[in-house]
Amino acid sequence: MGTIRLPPRREEALASFKKGDCIITFAVASLFTGEPNERLRTNVLCLLGTHIHYTRGMHNLCIGVRTMRVANLTAQAFYEDEGKILSAVYFQGCNKDCKWCHNPELKPMGGGIEKTPEEIFSEITKGNFLSDGVLLSGGEPTIQKGIVELCCHFVGIGWRVVLNTNGSMPGVIDNLPEGMKVTLDVKTPKKDYGMDSGTIDFCIQALQRFNESEIRITWSPSYLTEANVIEMVRWIRSINKESPIYLQPYKWTTKMPGVPFIQPNKEQVAALIKRVQESTGHLMKTRYV
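and the corresponding structure tokens:
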């Protein structure tokens, strides 16, 4: 049994983890209270090779298996973000069932190929001279048990990391390295989140600690009224005044089951953005997918 010792003032808790047949005990330092020790957390992730996440104030520590379900991995240049060319990893499995999902084939939890964070990192970076970073999407990447470790690996080599999330895993969001970009899809007005309203509140607020972040509202008049969008912007801005908010028009693809929703055109999108600004004083941006 080995112990990593820290100065006494930081020895706030001890935790034991099982890796293979051995137990490793170490001081968790400030993972449970106060500001997290980013360097310690990253080192622990790399040392133990284990997915660790905590929720500030909840004294929560979770250990999970490290394999991740990958649906599609594109190592060479694929996606452009803010002038940077990114590789892409699409994970299999999502804990939501949005009818307007752009990748419905990635919803089922089964399928995909199991890979460790190290395998994904190696496949993306080995011999890759075209990419400046990586897009992590899905599915829902934050339900993958090795996602924090994978992000730490990419941020550690100076790559741009962009992660798309539905905001359902606040403990994971709160444990991602700050030097990356997180984009959050807000689906509905707060009241429609029901028991999950506190979870999405936390994630909206947490975005402000990242180097870059954005919030997206995918809009079709079929499932969100103009009043709904105005209500959502007011709610978001009441708890996050920094992250830009994008109005992303719904676009039907042949992969989507059922009858297509109404697809708003550019004029309708521009008119709604104007009404949002007139009603709330906040300017939305737009992006066409």
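(Above: one complete record from the training split.) Residues 68-286 form a domain with the TIM Barrel fold (CATH 3.20.20.70).
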